[in-house]
């Protein structure tokens, strides 16, 4: 079974998230949405859309979504079969969260790496 198939998102904290949003918009052209980030749609070499997106988001410093990690970032990895991967990671002795979120956005699970960083695993919905 293939484990990680790509990067689904990059999330990081900022001391002044609104100022960071403005900087990234002005200097790099990233249109930050009301949820605090942007979704980059994938394209082929000719610029034609293909299934898939990568999320990018700046979060407030006091945001606890990355907890229990104290790192100022979290990477979301795309996976093919979240439930099977979570089962394998548990068998391998990894610190895996028991909770799995399932919604119209896909399935989400989490694991802590050896240095205490929270890693988000995402199985996109069918067709993405």
Short description:
By secondary structure, the protein is an alpha+beta fold. It contains two helices and eight strands, in the order βαβββαββββ.
Descriptive overview:
The chain has 2 helices and 8 strands, in the order βαβββαββββ. Strands 1, 2, 3, 4, 5, 6, 7 and 8 form an 8-stranded mixed β-sheet that branches. A hairpin with a 2-residue loop joins strand 6 and strand 7. 17% of the residues lie in helices and 43% in strands. It is an alpha+beta fold. The model has no long low-confidence stretch (mean pLDDT 92). The protein has one domain (4-123): 2,3-Dihydroxybiphenyl 1,2-Dioxygenase, domain 1, CATH 3.10.180. The chain has helices at 17-28, 82-91, and strands at 4-14, 37-43, 49-60, 73-79, 95-96, 101-103, 106-112, 118-123.
